[in-house]
Amino acid sequence: MTFAGWFSILVCLLLILALTKPFGIYLYRVFETERPPLAPILGGLERWVYRLSGVDPSKEHHWTEYARALLAFSLFGVLITHFIQRVQHLLPLNPAGLGPVAPDLAFNTAVSFTTNTNWQSYAGESTMSTITQMAGLTWHNFLSAACGVAVALALARGFTRQRGQTVPATIGNFWVDVTRCLLHVLLPISFLFALALVQQGVPQTFAPNTAATTLEGAKQAIPLGPVASQESIKMLGTNGGGYYNANSAHPFENPTPFSNLLEMISIFAIAAALTYTYGLMARNSREGWAIFWAMACLCVAGVSVCYWAESKPNPALAGLPLTVEGNLEGKEVRFGFAATALFATLATDASCGAVNGMHDSFNPLGGLVPLLNIQLGEVVFGGVGSGLYGMLVFVVLSVFIAGLMVGRTPELLGKKIEAKEVKLAVLYCLVFCVAVLGMTAAAAAVLPHGTSTLNNAGPHGLSEILYAASSAAGNNGSAFAGLGANTLFWNVGLAVLMWLGRFWMMIPVLGIAGSMVGKKTRPPGPGTFPTDIPLFTALLIGVVAIVGALTFFPALCLGPLVEHFVALHGKVY
Amino acid sequence: MFQTMTIALRFCLVTLVLTGLAYPALVTGFAQLLFPWRASGSPVKDERGAVVGSELLAQRFLSPAYFQPRPSAAGDGYDTNSSGGSNFGPTSAKLRNRVKADIARLQKENPAAAAPVPLELVSASGSGLDPHLTPTAALWQVGRIAAARKVSPERVRALVADREETPVPGIGGERRVNVLLLDLDLDRSFGRPALPVPAGAPPGGK
Predict the structure, then answer these.
(1) Of A191, A340, B67, B84, which one is least surrounded by beta carbons within 10 A?
(2) What chain B residue is nearest to A136 in terms of C-alpha separation?
(3) Which of B83, B80, B141 is nearest to B112 (CA)?
(4) Does the ipTM surpass 0.90?
(5) Nearest C-alpha of chain B: how many angstroms from A130?
(6) In this complex, do A216 and B60 lie within 8 Å of one another by their Cβ atoms?
(7) Taking Cα atoms as reference points, which of A449, A452, A468, A447 lies closest to residue A555?
(8) What is the pTM of this model?
């Protein structure tokens, strides 16, 4: 660990902090006012989208209608992307002449990108044609992110709308939320960000691969494509699906330390700003900051442990005549330890499956951090939208637990939390842990298909399986990538987990929104537990940590923790 | 319900055209206009104008007269169609054996270099295409290169110093030199070495 390393981590986190308020205000004006700031430029395009799709933007949705729209849209999303992959050999823009994608892989990929997971069982440069990357995958990078924001807005409206403000109790218009997110937030920022990435060295072209002859006379293909346009939304939308197999470790996706800094900031930008937007919606910005600081504390703890662990030598190389620096296996020279540890922490705090170093080769405790981050529910800023609604579910649980401790009816922003909301919140938590642990147990202990494609033996093999299941159900998409996941078992199994982890968690959230929006708001009394103070922040951190730890601690003991202790004794498998 | 499905399908098609076709096309247009060389993959040419690689992608160097990049686990090594790391974990016997073999090879190729071997010369990168070395790892190879090209080590060291990029405080990153550009500097200063290269086991690989 170096001073320069810690300083670069601090700078990145401070930049995110500085962006939170101005960007949060901008998002509030986009979603909660009649005329967004960019309406003079983009208003025409917005009306055109509504007209072509047959949307009536003035009509608000009840929560069931909102959920139906989300599901219908996602269903077509899966079908269209599956179809494009299967016929890519017949479509234009296939300079490398790639054949159709296998059915199980195409299904896995379609579900993966629709659910904002971006788990990749394939190597992009040798599987997906240019048209598939653009129309099939870049499209979902935008839309799945916008859907996440829409659901978060719906939940925030459920908490913050006063009774009678909208009659009957509605939570917004799904199509309007998605369109505004797309046109006023994601597209303009991605456009500028993509050009910045090109300036740093990311390719952006429709030309075929360049054939080079190396200095020693060998042939080398320079793999090209519209990379920057996908890279920018991949980070900003916390998607994480790389154009190339090596993802953001690839020099064409992330060529310099500066591009790396931009990519890290963009992972958190929207998620952090949404906490401030939530505060504005609640008419009390401290409500937003209380959540922000809970997230910030967990993030700093994660990156500190990861940076410390990765600065230790790789135990597999103990005693060999090498310089002692830290663990460089799977890391890039231009990033070094600090920027790799920070990137890994941010990407797994959020549901962004991007990696700029190989998590599978991290030291045991260094690899524990990304794994645990996903298992905490990706609520540390989290995916765009999904982080905020996930954290708000934990807010419901925290208020409920605080209410139990003092013997008062739990209240949030003046609305009573009752049995229905708590049941839905618990369902949200249970779906995730049953999916992750069920799949891990099935793959590791019951079915031989799970262990046949492992790259590592011993406890690290279990970690690979646990990471795959957590990443899929958590809609993260990063991997302990040694696991060979392009098999029928993993493609279908993980697709089911991604589907469970997306929609079986979104629907309870919308249910909570629908149930809360109609409730009467009461002024705070002497028995009200305030949710805008540091004490609440501490309680929230505790609830997130305890739920995550109690659920996954036994599995983590068998994976990374036991690996740490056997590694100390110099054992290799 | 039927109405919702119709809207969903129409909305899918509208947004697909907007974000999947129009947006990448627009970015490509501006990128090619503003940064044409970068947008085309930063190709590097030799003095005869032939493309010898990309500034940003490592390539295999086996000749003792060139700086060698880090070992690569991309395909059979430096395969640009199959980027990636070894994904060997921290208790992997395969990793330990691979590193032992690489240490033995490097010590044999660099008899004059001082022990210990720089860690990054035996650690596969995340992409398998890492174009950089730290100055330490480059300088460690200077003795071999100077002997193969029959020039003084001082002159080779000066080329490394000229190519060094230093990180900006706060942005992150490490001190580094670009291996391909450095090897082109070698050829420019001292001429191309005799090829073909001696056959040897490719470094790295799964």
Answers:
(1) A191
(2) B20
(3) B141
(4) yes
(5) 11
(6) yes
(7) A468
(8) 0.95
Across the range B66-94, mean pLDDT stands at 94
Q: How many CB atoms lie within 10 A of CB B77?
A: 19
Q: Which of B12, B122, B172 sits opposite A335 (nearest CB)?
A: B172
**Bridge-partner residues for A222, per DSSP?**
A210
Q: Which pLDDT score, from 0 to 100, does residue B200 have?
A: 47
Q: Which residues from A are below 8 Å from B103, CB to CB?
A: 320-322
Please tell me the distance in Å from B87's CA to the nearest CA on chain A.
5
A333-381 pLDDT tens trace: 999 999 999 999 999 999 999 999 999 999 999 999 999 999 999 999 9
Nearest residue, CB atoms, A245 vs list B5, B42, B82:
B82
Q: Residue B51 pairs with which residues in a beta bridge?
A: B45
The residue written with tokens 């970068």 in the block is B38
Which of B5, B92, B94, B107 is the best substitution to test chain A (most A C-beta atoms within 10 A)?
B92
What are the Cα distances from residue A249, in Å, to A23, A37, A221, A503?
28, 36, 18, 30
DSSP-H helix ranges across A115-169: 124-127, 130-131, 139-160
Q: Give the integer Cα–Cα distance in Å for B143 and B148.
A: 9
Task: Collect all residues of chain B within an 8 Å Cβ-Cβ radius of residue A77.
Answer: 12
* Chain B hits for A259, Cβ within 8 Å: none
Measured between alpha carbons, how far is residue A382 from residues A374, A446, B47, B138 in Å? 9, 32, 50, 40
Output DSSP code: residue A527.
Answer: T
Inter-axis angle of helices A386-406 and A419-441, nearest 10: 120
Which of A471, A514, A461 shows the shortest CA–CA distance to A493? Answer: A471
Judging by beta carbons within 10 Å of its beta carbon (0-12, 13-18, 19+), is residue B99 exposed, middle or buried?
buried
